[in-house]
Predict the 3D structure of the following.
Amino acid sequence: MIDEYNAGSINVETFFKKLVEFSQLLKEEDRRAIKENLNEEELAMLCGWYGCPPPMSMEPDAIAVAARALFGRLELDRLLVTLGPRGALAADAQGITRGAAPRPVQLVDTVGAGDSFSAVVLAGSLRGWGGCGNEPPASRSPRSPRKR
């Protein structure tokens, strides 16, 4: 489909129609992956597929509005969007939760970053943390270094 479009053998309207048809064929595992870990570009693309207003900019507030719209359109339990060095956000029935931006590090490779993010969110969900998996309950104090 992409090759056809790039070669000029189908127009943009046909291309988007085929994309919508393809999105309707997604298996449950693919749908689970969508709701657990989108980046901001994927969010914009899915908003177009499902008739939601895409983000007006790549600013977190605009992305939050689009995430909330897609969350409502797809009737999800939760929708997570990673924002790279700007953190993440989660849309759910209570609204939008913003996850803190990670501390700056020297990146070597981003392979596996999304999977790592999903693992932290899952661990956080199992422990009762907040929407983006990085918000321990207020009653829990941070660990202090062990004394030897």
